[in-house]
Amino acid sequence: MDAQKKYWFPAKRYGWGWSFPTCWQGWAVFVAYVALLGLVRYFFPPAKDHGAFLTGIGASTVGLFVVCWFKGEPPSWRWGQ
C-alpha cells in the first residue's frame, strides 16, 4: 500500500489543512458531514434558533476536524510540491 493511500485526507498542496478525500472511507465521512449540516439546518433553522444552529454546525465541523486530524496526512504549512 502506498503511503498516500493510507491517509483518508491528503494534505493540501498550498497552505495548512487537508484536501478532498482519496478513499471511500474519507468520502463517507465527507458525505456524512454534509448530511449533518443539512439536518442541522432542517431541525434548527437559523431564523428560529440561532444558538442551536451555530452549536450544531460547530459540533459537526469539530467532528470533521477530529477525523481529519487522526485519519489525514499530518498537517503543516505547504508551499507546493
What does this structure look like?
Helices cover 52% and strands 5% of the residues. It has 81 residues and is mainly α. The chain has a domain at 20-72. Strands 1-2 form a two-stranded antiparallel sheet. The longest helix has 22 residues, at 50-71.
Task: Record keyword descriptors for this entry.
81 residues, mainly alpha, two-stranded antiparallel sheet, 2 helices, 52% helix
Chain-wise SSE layout:
Blueprint: E1 14-15, H1 24-43, H2 50-71, E2 78-79
Antiparallel strand pairs: 1-2
Helix pairs in contact: 1-2
Radius of gyration, whole Å: 15 Å
Secondary structure: number of strands: 2
Report how far apart the termini are.
Answer: 21 Å
Mean pLDDT: 91
User: Treating each run of at least 4 consecutive H or I residues as one helix, how many helices?
Assistant: 2
Summarize the entry for a quick read.
With 81 residues, the chain is mainly alpha-helical. It is built from 2 helices and 2 strands.
